[in-house]
Design brief:
Layout: E1 2-15, E2 18-23, E3 26-32, H1 39-51, E4 55-56, E5 62-64, H2 66-69, E6 72-77, H3 99-115, E7 120-122, E8 129-144
Parallel strand pairs: 3-6, 6-7
Antiparallel strand pairs: 1-2, 1-3, 1-8, 4-5
């Protein structure tokens, strides 16, 4: 499972010309679910997302987490994060989980974040979306549950 996390001052998502979600400060989480991903992957990435210190303190240092700043999340399912571009010019998406499995784990990601008291807006699964992101910094971090054995964890 991968989450491309972007710190934002504002973000929104539209489906069919209608705004379906908006946040005013926090992170956009573009979420890609891979074949073989489990509840453990979801739990790991939710905790990492909520506790990653990517917000500045009074001294301008990255010492605050999303929970510390009471930020919000805009979560958008994005299977294209699983693109395999090693061969040819057309990406392969065979590593992406089937839609039923991916939607269940994406929904679990949202549920767990909301369970921690975070306001979470979402896009619409398997829909064409227009995502507006006002990236703050810019700060963009790629989280990957398959590399969760990183130093210090």
């Amino acid at each position: 499972m991968k989450v491309l996390l972007q710190r934002v001052v504002q973000a929104s998502v539209e489906v069919g010309g209608d705004e379906v979600a908006r946040i005013d400060g926090g992170v956009v989480c573009l979420v890609g679910v891979a074949q073989g991903d489990t509840e453990d992957d979801v739990r790991h990435l939710v905790e990492k997302t909520l506790n990653l210190r990517i917000f500045a303190d009074e001294a301008g240092k990255f010492n605050l987490s999303l929970l510390d700043v009471k930020g919000q999340i805009l979560a958008v399912s994005q299977f294209t994060l699983l693109a395999d571009t090693r061969k040819g010019r057309r990406p392969s998406f065979t590593q992406a989980a089937p839609p039923v499995h991916a939607e269940a784990l994406f929904n679990r990601f949202v549920e767990l974040a909301r369970g921690r008291g975070v306001i979470v807006g979402t896009g619409r699964f398997q829909q064409h979306m227009l995502v507006r992101i006002c990236n703050d910094g810019p700060v963009t971090v790629l989280l990957d549950s398959r590399s969760q054995q990183a130093i210090g964890e």
